[in-house]
Structure formats: C-alpha cells, structure tokens
C-alpha cells in the first residue's frame, strides 16, 4: 500500500539508526605553531592529528604555504595513499613526506631553507567521515644564525658538562692517590715494626748466648 517492501523499510530504519549512533567529530590538528630554523639547513614541519574514525585509504593530507609578505597561497605537498610532491614552483625537489598515518603523523621535511620560505605553513587532514576541523598552522622564521641566547645556553650546558666531568676525574685521581699513599705508609710502618722486632730478637739471642758462655 505504501509502495515499499518491509525489508526496504527495515534497512532504511537501520541506516537511520546507525547514522544517529555515529558521533559527529572533527579532526584535531596539533603543530608546533612557531618554528625557527637557520638559512640553508633542513626543517621538519611537525603535524599530528587525532580522529574518531579509523585511519584508512580515504585519508588525505594537504600542505599549503602563505608567504610572509602576502600573495596567493601556494601548494607545498599532498598525501593520499602515496605522497605527491610538487612538480614545479619554489618547493619542487625540496619537500618530502615524513609522516606515518598509522601513528597519526602528517609531518613533512623541508630541505635547504631560504629566507623567502618565511611565512605560514598550513596542514589540513581529512579522514572521512571526519572531514571538518581547524587547519593546523606553523609560522616558520628562517634566520641567518640562531639567537645569541640559544648559543649561550648551549655553550653553557656543554661547558658545565665538561667542567663536571673534569671535576669527577680529578676527584677520582686524588682519591686513588691518597689511597695508594695511605697503603704505602701502612706498608712502611709494617716493615719498620718487623725490622725492630727482628733487631730485638737478635739482641735477645746475643744476650742469651753471652750468658751461656759466661756460665
């Protein structure tokens, strides 16, 4: 009467119930937000994510770049089952996949940094049915050298570690020296005591022989 078979109605109702039971969730993106690197070096742009849905072949990762001085957004990298590097542009042959979807990692490596790489890098992950969520951002600053404070603390840490090792070596050497000296003094005293005891016994023997001869 209604134009639908009972089986079709049951399947329709079951589908509606499963859809209602499936939670509506968004992909959560986690990045370092700020990254500083030296000109000419390489940098890992770390991007991890969490998703309610299990990771499968439908997962996609898209990296884009917004220059610091403005201008249009530029393509950096794309991943879907396999990594897809840019065939042209500023990032050609300078970016590689360094992620692992099974570990919820969508990171990439950027090689041979240049000053014009300064800007904001965006990481977008879609894992159907989780396709919504905030896009992760990393603000990269390419500098000539690391800041003085970083060099200072690094040198201070290395210097402190070396100084500590030198102090430990000196203490160990001194302890061993004093132990050897103490043992040498003890051995010398033992030799002196034995010599005096032998001398005393010799004197007693001489006295007893003299007394025997007198008698």
From TrEMBL:
Residues 1-26 form the signal peptide. The chain crosses the membrane at residues 151-175. It is a single-pass type I membrane protein. The keyword Glycoprotein applies. One of its GO terms (biological process) is cell-cell adhesion. SMART domains: IG, IGv. Residues 23-141 form the Ig-like domain. The keyword Protease does not apply. It comes from the Eukaryota. PROSITE patterns: IG_LIKE. Its main location: membrane. Keywords: Disulfide bond, Glycoprotein, Immunoglobulin domain, Membrane, Signal, Transmembrane, Transmembrane helix. It is found in: Membrane. One of its GO terms (cellular component) is plasma membrane. Belongs to the myelin P0 protein family. This is Myelin protein zero like 2. It comes from Aotus nancymaae. The gene is MPZL2.
């Amino acid at each position: 009467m209604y134009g639908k078979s009972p089986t079709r109605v049951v399947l329709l109702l079951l589908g509606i119930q499963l859809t209602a039971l499936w939670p509506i969730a968004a992909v959560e993106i986690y990045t370092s937000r700020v990254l500083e690197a030296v000109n000419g070096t390489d940098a890992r742009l770390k991007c991890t994510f969490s998703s309610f849905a299990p990771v499968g072949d439908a997962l996609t990762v898209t990296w884009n770049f917004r220059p610091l001085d403005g201008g249009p957004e530029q393509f950096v990298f794309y991943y879907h089952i396999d990594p897809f590097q840019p065939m042209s542009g500023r990032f050609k042959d300078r970016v590689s996949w360094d992620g692992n979807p099974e570990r919820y990692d969508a990171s990439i490596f950027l090689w041979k940094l240049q000053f014009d790489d300064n800007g904001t890098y965006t990481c977008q992950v879609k894992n159907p049915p989780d396709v919504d969520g905030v896009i992760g951002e990393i603000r990269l600053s390419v500098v000539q050298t690391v800041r003085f404070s970083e060099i200072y603390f690094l040198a201070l840490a290395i210097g402190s570690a070396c100084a500590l090792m030198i102090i430990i070596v000196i203490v160990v050497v001194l302890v061993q020296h004093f132990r050897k000296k103490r043992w040498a003094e003890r051995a010398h005293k033992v030799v002196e005591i034995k010599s005096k005891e032998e001398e005393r016994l010799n004197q007693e023997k001489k006295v007893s022989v003299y007394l025997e001869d007198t008698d």
